Amino acid sequence: MTEIISLIKNKDPEQREFHQAVEEVVESVKPVLERNPEYRRQAVLERITEPERVIMFRVPWLDDDAQVHVNRGFRVEMNSAIGPYKGGLRFHPSVNLGIIKFLAFEQVFKNSLTTLAMGGGKGGSDFNPKGKSDGEVMRFCQSFMAELSRHIGPNTDVPAGDIGVGAREIGFLFGMYKKLRNEFTGVLTGKSLDWGGSLIRPEATGYGTVYFAAEMLATREETLEGKTCLVSGSGNVAQYLTEKVIDLGGKVVTLSDSSGYVFDEEGIDRDKLTYVQQLKNIRRGRIAEYVENYPNAVYTPIDPERDYNPLWAHKADCAFPCATQNEINAKDGENLVNNGVSLISEGANMPSVPAAVDLFIDHGLLYAPGKAANAGGVAVSGLEMAQNSMRLSWPREEVDSRLKEIMKCIHNTCVDASESYGAKGNYVAGANIAGFVKVVNAMLDQGLV
Ligand code: GLU
Do 259 and 299 share a domain, yes or no? Predict the structure, then answer.
């Protein structure tokens, strides 16, 4: 089984995040392959780690001064065994093929866990929306969709948002798709409510991550009431996650962006959260401004010399990383464990390095990997697709209660899968095994394609 790791490393030596994601899954599913020699004969690991299709394209666009720029666009269609490719688009300067492949790979297992019929894919660009005007973002999105539109469709591949792609970008992308194809269909999710979006979709990832945390706590007869929580990020996921923690009686004391973080010992209440939402979503400002409004809070800028993130070094009960991959390094992991954190539920995709994950599991923390904990976002995207197909829209309560039910089901599936392979309490093993078995069985049912 280690052969598969050397195989993918030799094929694409520079795709470090992809290797990391594959290594974690391979480690978890070893006992599954040992019990099922047929899986080995069928080369399921070789098949599941090779994308069904990779699309890479030029995205030329004009800035407000009529200067031409060129970015690179990606869509990795990883696996369609259980449904059309589904997964977000990320616009961020760090984007490259390795990052998109790791995200697409994670998405396959995440989507499988949701109980809905969605395959896995991911896309994006190294375009940086930060500091760009609405016109520039629109022209970029239109150029991006001019190519992407050939490859996607409501029954083929349904993109959505991710870092740097929110309601504004989805609007521009959808408008261009509709114009090019002359079709009003549910080809993207995360749409605005008035033209095909679903209630609760903006909230879903953050809420779902908290619902998952509540399920984990319930196994120890605990709740979030009175718990101090560290949250990183300040985008869509972090914002709605904070709202749900407040709803359930917890206290969020940190938020961050790529420049630094704020620590508010008194807790970020509803009013402060509304301020953050204005700041981030409307003014598109920096989290540093928070302390101008709330002077009791402390802002710490990122110090590139420091080998740990002080955000994770505060005393707390729970941690919710909602920023980006590998944001929790081994030292951050140690700080979390030493400072009494007993629950980590990941709103971001693969935010903890493997050494930190091992530490959390060895110390018996309630640790939920992103592919299980943050699956609520794509789950409600699946519900948006269902509503689009029926040309109906469900009330808020209905979507929220389905989301809650799905998160509970993912939790129980992880627990059952981990138990049946002798790894009780290990949500990483549970999520990987359950996600893997469903997709692999579907692949085998459909023959060698
Ligand atoms: N980008 C989100 C994720 O990581 C949502 C994907 C979707 O809704 O398709 O799961």
Answer: yes
Mapped onto helix, strand or coil, the DSSP state of residue 263 is: strand
Q: Please tell me the total count of domains within the chain.
A: 2
* 162 and 231 belong to one structural domain: no
Question: Which residues are CB-contacts of 26 (< 8 A; sequence separation ≥ 6)?
Answer: 1, 4, 5, 45
- Whole-model pTM? 0.98
Single-letter residue type at 269: D
Across the beta sheet with 157-160, the strand order is 53-62, 68-79, 120-125, 85-91, 157-160
Tell me whether residue 408 is one of the annotated catalytic residues.
no
Task: Give Cα 371 to chain centroid, integer Å.
Answer: 7
**Ligand 1 nearest atom to the CA of residue 111, by list position:** 10
Which domain-ending residue is among 328, 356, 373? 373
Residue 4 structure tokens: 């598969």
Distance 241 CA to ligand 1 centre (A): 15
Measure the CA–CA gap between 89 and 333, rounded to whole angstroms. 29
Structure tokens at 39: 């899986």
CB of 373 within 6 A of ligand 1: the answer is no
Q: Among 266, 265, 288, which Cα is nearest to 276's?
A: 288
13, part of any domain: no
Nearest to 224 by CA among 236, 241, 237: 241
> Residues 57-103: pLDDT tens digits?
999 999 999 999 999 999 999 999 999 999 999 999 999 999 999 99
pLDDT of 2: 76
| Structural domain boundaries, residue 164 | 51-184
Element (H, E) at 88: strand 85-91
